[in-house]
Design brief:
The protein is an all-beta fold. The chain is 0% helix and 50% strand. It is elongated and about 110 Å long.
């Protein structure tokens, strides 16, 4: 005897997505002459391999959802149902005779496909969401206000159960500054890549073109009458005026919006979205070092605060270095900025300290000149502060 196994359909979707989530598995038992065995045999179905996301066979053996009950053939055929779980992947199913388990079929495959992009939306506040989409970039701060640079953006999209969405899912992008490819397609891992160029338009809080997108005029993709609640950082602590005429938020930060069509927690059509912020850094406006005290005795330290920011109040670009040196005493830290891959958005304030290391028995009082040097894609500049080292 032989068993011929088939599945209809041979691809289904993860459960609770509104798509088909079951497949009928049919085992046809043939005699040695190739004819169906009628109603004479019982067959069991078993899942040999799968994504282990709760997929199961029905009717199932109690406590063994991966194996069916013994099912009597009707006109030579026995049927069971594969029900999908929460994970996408390929399920391998095999059938065997209940009373002669050595007689088995070849495995048949059923592909469980991932669901659509997913977003949870708070019914009481549509701006409060948990989207299964993420935008990321290789760097967060480049010289882009007055120079054309390129950010490499990546998008990651998942379904309700955190599976990668299907290959070819379209994601649409727009930005409040620069130029970005308007749409990309995900690969089999739910990922896609695109480049944002820091060309015009510049990212202003209040663009001169009132029709242009700005951080405060990005509509909620699921409610056009509701703006996204974006607060732009004030990196330099309200030292620089912005295009709104105040000092609270900074120009020079572009917001990228990524959207795709998907489903919400109720299975309704929804736009799945997220935003990502990037700094278009410009020429340096301020580099200043300030000491906490004008003189220190041996063994005492003076704190040194360094402020550095561009014409919009934003930190210098990734790839900058900020070093401190002195002609007397000892500095606690001399290299203050992290490397480009660990830079993030950067900072506008750094700190170190100077220790008076003079020996009263052999040294003379002196003036320590602490020099701060910035080497940056934004430009090079320096500043210094003097501290009296007494005995």
């Amino acid at each position: 005897m032989t068993i011929v196994l088939s599945a209809s359909p041979n691809s289904i979707w993860v459960k609770e997505t509104g798509n088909l989530d079951q497949s009928v598995i049919t085992a046809t038992v043939l005699s040695t002459s190739g004819n169906p065995m009628g109603n004479e045999t019982s067959v069991r179905f078993i899942i040999r391999n799968g994504p282990q996301g709760g997929e199961r066979l029905a009717p199932a053996t109690a406590g063994r959802e991966w194996e069916s009950n013994a099912i009597r053939t009707v006109s030579g055929a026995a049927k069971a149902t594969l029900q999908s779980g929460t994970k996408s992947g390929t399920v391998e199913i095999q059938a065997y005779l209940a009373d002669r388990p050595e007689i088995t079929s070849r495995t048949t495959d059923v592909v469980i496909r991932s669901g659509p992009p997913y977003i949870w939306i708070d019914p009481a506040n549509k701006n409060k969401v948990v989207p299964h989409i993420t935008l990321a970039s290789d760097l967060l701060n480049l010289r882009g206000w007055d120079h054309v640079s390129r950010f490499n953006l990546s998008v990651y999209v998942g379904d309700k159960y955190n599976n990668p969405v299907e290959e070819g899912t379209a994601v649409y992008l727009t930005t409040t500054g620069g130029i970005v490819t308007t749409d990309i397609r995900t690969n089999a891992a739910g990922e896609g890549g695109v480049v944002l160029t820091t060309a015009n338009p510049r990212p202003y809080l209040k663009p001169m073109d009132f029709t242009a997108l700005s951080p405060h005029t990005i509509p909620n993709p699921n409610d056009a009458g509701l703006m996204l609640p974006i607060t732009v950082p004030d990196f330099e602590y309200s030292q620089v005026f912005n295009s709104l005429g105040d000092r609270r938020e900074n120009d020079g930060m572009a917001y990228v919006l990524a959207t795709t069509h998907g489903k919400d927690q109720n299975g309704n059509d929804a736009i799945v979205y997220c935003t990502h912020a990037l700094i278009f850094s410009g020429p340096i406006l301020q580099l200043r070092a300030t000491a906490s005290t004008a003189q220190i005795a041996p063994g005492q330290s003076a704190g040194i605060i360094i402020e550095v920011y561009d014409i919009n109040g934003n930190p210098p670009a990734s790839g900058s270095s900020l070093t401190v040196s002195t002609n007397a005493g000892e500095l606690a830290e001399s290299n203050l900025m992290p490397s480009a891959e660990h830079y993030g958005y950067g900072s506008t304030r750094y700190a170190t300290s100077l220790l008076n290391t003079l020996d009263p028995a052999k040294d003379k009082a002196t003036t320590a000149v602490v020099t701060v040097r910035l080497e940056s894609p934004n430009g090079a500049t320096s500043s210094s502060v003097q501290i009296q080292l007494t005995l």
